[in-house]
Amino acid sequence: MEDRLEQFKCPHCGAGIEFSGETQEMKCDFCGAEISVDEIIEYLDAETDAKQRVSGWNKGEGQHFDGESDLNVFSCPSCGGEIVCEATTVATACPYCDNPVIMKGRVSGDLMPDCVIPFRITKEQAKDALRRHYKNKTLLPKVFADENHIDEVKGIYVPFWLFDGDADVSIRYEGIRTRVWRDSEYENTARSHYLILRSGGLGFDNVPVDGSKKMENNLIESIEPFDFSEAVDFKTAYLSGFFADRYDESSDDCISRAEQRMENTAEDQIRNTVVGYDSVTVKKKAVFVHNGRVRYALCPVWILNTKWKDRSYRFIVNGQNGRIAGDLPMSKSLYRKWFAGIFAAGTAIITLLTLLIRFLGAK
To answer: Residue 57: helix, strand or coil by DSSP?
Structure first.
């Protein structure tokens, strides 16, 4: 499939125009104009039709590097500079004129997403979320927040597969109830064993599984959930001003992860109906997922990279609700003090209990 470059220009001044998560409209930073997504799409379509009537040139054809099939080079429609990107890149920016560029051929036909959740969290709000993430972290080095600096903040649309389906669940448990009593000589224990059968069905909508190999699964799952009631029909205008990747893991590759998430949720829901026992053990289970349906979506994520003491730290922020995930450094000296405090407190409690037992025994 042929890649065709697309850029969004302000109808008033011709400068590059980007989608604003704050206003949910296209905004020109040069002249301040704000235009709805539908209006900018209509303007772009009319402009493209006019160009096609005048010229037969195709400026959006990408060329592969020799020996590097995962890289492509394009000519920027604004300044003519060369843009080098990976084969999965959908949206980026020209390194010379900084205008947003979209590889339209990579989001058309069978590759077109069914929906997109537009960014709502701005870049500054993402930075604020990181600063709040630092607070109340007992073992965080005190100088980390002051000495580290954010090297890069990148808004990227991450490809997701959304799975719908029904799960039929059948589980056999063993439940145990324990009764303890004392007589004049002994402490007695009786355990009663019960066979517990549970079965039922659950329906699932929009179970998300990211389709990008670059994104760590456990990290991206940590910033869920996304509210898919806010998803809109896909339009390339939403990508303007952000980065975007095309999936490099197919829906077939992700089915097992989706089914596992459905199974785990179904098991938890069924387990919550088993009450009144001292212990419950699963003896046999069967989960059958059927009536499956899959859709392709793009979800907004801010990626923040920061360095401290020559080590890189990566954080990601949900571009819809501001939820954040990422690893923080730990101060060894603070950890030793914290552990010593816990140990001292534990020792004090044990000493107090020992003295109390002796006192009661003496009486």
So the answer is: coil
